[in-house]
Amino acid sequence: IKNNRLNINDFENYIKSSAETESLGNYLLEVLPVNPENNISWITFSEFFELSFSFIKNQDLSPKIVQLQTILSEKYLRYLILSAQFKKALNVVSLISKKLKKLPESQHHKPVFIAYKADIYRMIGKNGAAEKLLRPIIIRLEKKSNLNQISLAQLYDVLGMRRLYDDKLRCSEAEKSLQRAFVIRQMNFGEQHISTISSNLHLAEYHNQMGSANKVFECVKSTLEHIAHFKNSYFEAWANDIMGLAFYFAGNKTNAISYCEKGLLARRQFLKKGHPLLLESLHNVGYLLLLSCKSVEAIAYIHQTYADFKQVSTPEHQNYTVTV
Fold it and tell me: What is the mean pLDDT of residues 110-131?
């Protein structure tokens, strides 16, 4: 630490004993947020997250160290996704996957990182690559599903979202995957767990796609009660965005724009410019304004969405096409 700031270069150049490396891993595990999405102050932990990357790169392959690296990799990946560092996130997945290959007893972690990789592909618009990655591992795990319920839920969730926004309109397939993920998480974690809340909001997105506003309100109402307990701006913004679209389908354009604007305002506080979720909120506000015949206000949002999309996403991303 220099002037109360972590100096990562000095740390990487310092030759550490195995005990010192393990001690650092335990410290990072303790100091970093359990779920970065739970706390919009995740930005203040950025240097600690970058230090955890230095720890993850350590070549020590002792089981204790690799176990710590695996847990920290998952936290670090979520931080990278929140900060829209997708290329680096894919590199972390590749790095930790190579380590896990060398340790047969750690193979049960592999599906989790495949799910992260597929989700990153989905977010940047590489839908075909995402599904190609997911299907073989899901088929394999389904054959021994009693041992891999939690991993399967994560894979089902990503596959469901990938199919929900597929231009081939595979909504029924999407619902099946999302419902499976929700049931597994509900049984294993309970209603108030972040993973269950996430699944419930994904189901709400499905109902929005189907134009079933009442089912959306039902999903989000139960979710908001749990979110209030966490005081979680990330999930509140997500719920507001979903509610905005539901109000539009219910014929209430005023509430629709108001809720989507709330979601956008919240997401701007903790997501980096160009993040897919921020682009989604920008697009929704612009689109709803356009549908409400407020074209002058709408074009500012739509133009900003288009400009940011060009910087961060591939042209095959469905929202990019809609924005164009």
Answer: 89
